[in-house]
Each structure stands twice: as C-alpha cells, then as structure tokens.
Amino acid sequence: MLIIREFEKQDQKSAYEIWKYGMAVDWSQGLFEMSIRCTELILLPFILQLLLFFLGVFSTPEQGNTILIAACIFWFGFLKMFSKYVGHSYVAGRTDMLDIEKNHGKRFIVATTEKQPEHVIGTIVYVESKNEEKFKGNRLDGKTWIMFSLAVCPNHRKKGIAKALLKHLEKLAKNENVSQIMFDASSPQKAARSFYSKAGYDHENLSFPLERIATLFGTSIEQFLVKKYFKICKIESFNFYKKIKK
Ligand SMILES: CC(C)(COP(=O)(O)OP(=O)(O)OC[C@H]1O[C@@H](n2cnc3c(N)ncnc32)[C@H](O)[C@@H]1OP(=O)(O)O)[C@@H](O)C(=O)NCCC(=O)NCCS
Q1: 152 in helix, strand or coil?
Q2: Per the database record, which ranges form the N-acetyltransferase domain (predicted)?
Q3: pLDDT of residue 173
Q4: Measured distance CA(178)–CA(141) in Å, rounded
Q5: Residue with the nearest Cα to atom 3 of ligand 1?
Q6: Residue 94: what pLDDT?
Q7: Contact partners, residue 142, CB within 8 Å, separation at least 6
Q8: When you count CB atoms within 10 A of the terminal residue's CB, does the N or C end of the chain come out lower?
C-alpha cells in the first residue's frame, strides 16, 4: 500500500536519487529527442559532407558516404553527451536538494510503501509564493502554492503515484485555504506535461527563462553554449494552474 508523508531525515539519499534521475536523465533524454528533431542540428553532418566534397577532400561517392556516416555518429553522440551534460549541470546547480530537511522541511512530501517505508518512490515539494502571480494575463487573488520537483522512481511509474502525490498536495492546499496551485514545466518534460493536463491543470506558454537557467551553469562559455543550444532546440516553458475549490 502507498504511504504519503512528510520528508524525514533518513529519506535524503533516496529522495535525492529519484529527483536527480527525473531531472538529469529524463530531462536530458527529452532535450536530446528535441535536438534530433531540429532541422538546423540534423543537417550539420550533410553540410560538412558537401563542404568536404567542394574542398576536394574525397573523390569517390563511397568515401563521401563513409565521411557522412562517421560525421553522423560523431554528431549525434556529441548531442547525446551535451544534453546529458546540461541535465547533470542543472542538478549540480540545485544545491537546495543536498539538504532537503534544511531547505524544504515539511513542505517536501514523499511517497513510500508499507512494505519498504524507508524507500522513497516519489517526491513533490511546494512553497508559498511571495509574489503577485498572474495566469493568462489575469492577476490571481489569494494564496498561491508553487509546486516543483515532482518525480517518481522509474520502476514505479504509471501506477498512479504522481497522481496520489498531487491529490495529497491539493488536499493540503484546500485545508490551508490556498486559492491556487501553480508550477512550470519545459518542453523536454513531455510525460509531466501530459500528466498535468490529465490532472486538470490549465496551462499557458511562457518564454523559457534562458538567462535564469543559464546562471546554473559554470563558466561564461558554458552558459553561452547552453543558451545557444536551448535557443536552437526552441525550448519552451509552460505555466500550469489549477484553482483550488473551497
Ligand atoms: C511525470 C511523472 C511524475 C509521472 O509519474 P507517474 O507516477 O508515472 O504518473 P501516474 O501513474 O500518476 O499517471 C497519472 C496520469 O498521467 C499519465 N501519464 C503518466 N506518465 C505519462 C507519460 N509518460 N505519457 C503520457 N501520459 C502519462 C498517466 O497515463 C495517467 O493518466 P490516467 O489517470 O488517465 O491513467 C514521471 O513520469 C516522472 O517522474 N518523470 C520525470 C520527472 C519529471 O519530469 N517531473 C516533472 C517536473 S516539472
């Protein structure tokens, strides 16, 4: 049976691992899938082949094909590594998750099972917004909770765990007289976007916060490359919203 409860100190390791997987592995995979659908990026090996042909680097079609195959393997391998690097750098930049108890405390909710209560299989966090929130251009009244870091262990997905975590959060919000729950997701998070829509959340498209996200990456060269990559892949951000019924 599923247990949903507040975070406890001993959950740190397993909660961190699940969140890390969701952000680094799932997110990078989504980013890679977007990049290989991006015309500018997939055409590069073909452009290289043409360039080398005009420079007279190869003389037979067989040599040209070998160069093209090698360039494709190298280029798609590079894109895969680069998306992984972006995901892992994001995780490294989220130092709040290294001490969940201190930084999120009771606002961090975990899912475990009766069989293995010490083993976290799902996570969700909320924070009360201090800003004046807007949705689709309208100013929102009342308390707003911002939800983030929803993740479910890969072996336990599609069993209703995220649904149960979100329901639990909505119940807490109702008890605390919260008017709405909001959160954002980006285009590489396809599963999450589909899940949120099924959970009855409305959404609006926002421009991806390139500048803010880039600050999570080390040197200015890294930040420059990551921003370029996100721009080429046309990453978008989505703001999700649900009114909590009194
Ligand atoms: C998104 C995520 C949390 C969903 O967790 P989950 O426990 O598998 O979701 P549930 O089993 O509760 O699914 C609830 C609904 O969402 C749908 N859903 C879940 N994953 C889906 C997917 N990959 N594609 C389409 N729909 C999906 C389910 O079909 C289900 O719909 P139903 O109620 O009509 O049956 C999980 O895939 C995950 O951890 N992803 C990586 C982390 C992430 O991206 N987090 C979001 C941060 S913004």
Answers
A1: strand
A2: 65-222
A3: 97
A4: 10
A5: 151
A6: 87
A7: 177, 178, 179, 180
A8: N
Tokens of 139: 């100013």
Distance 216 CA to ligand 1 centre (A): 26
> How far does the centroid of ligand 1 lie from the alpha carbon of residue 22, in Å?
11
* CATH number of residue 196's parent domain: 3.40.630.30
For the chain, the residue count is 246
Structure-token pair, residue 207: 């421009």
Whether 26 and 115 have beta carbons less than 8 Å apart is answered as no
Distance 161 CA to ligand 1 centre (A): 8
Mean pLDDT by 10 residues, the chain (246 residues): 96 96 94 94 92 88 90 95 90 91 96 94 97 94 95 96 97 97 94 95 91 80 88 93 92
Expressed in angstroms and rounded, the spacing between residue 50 Cα and the centre of ligand 1 is 43
Nearest-atom number in ligand 1 for the CA of 165 is: 12
From 95, 146, 112, 136, select the one nearest 11 (Cα to Cα): 112
Query: Of 199, 226, 198, 197, which Cα lies nearest the Cα of 214?
Result: 226
pTM, entire model: 0.90
Helix (H/G/I), strand (E/B), else coil: 236 = strand
- Angle in degrees, 0-180, between the axes of helices 61-93 and 220-232, rounded to the nearest 10: 120
State the total domains in the chain: 1
Q: What pLDDT is stored for residue 21 in this prediction?
A: 95
pLDDT of residue 175: 96
User: Using a 6 Å cutoff on CB, does residue 185 contact ligand 1?
Assistant: yes
Helices (H) and strands (E) in the chain, counts: 10, 9
Whether the CB of 155 sits within 6 Å of ligand 1: no
Q: Which range of residues forms the domain containing residue 90?
A: 2-243
Question: What pLDDT is stored for residue 47 in this prediction?
Answer: 92
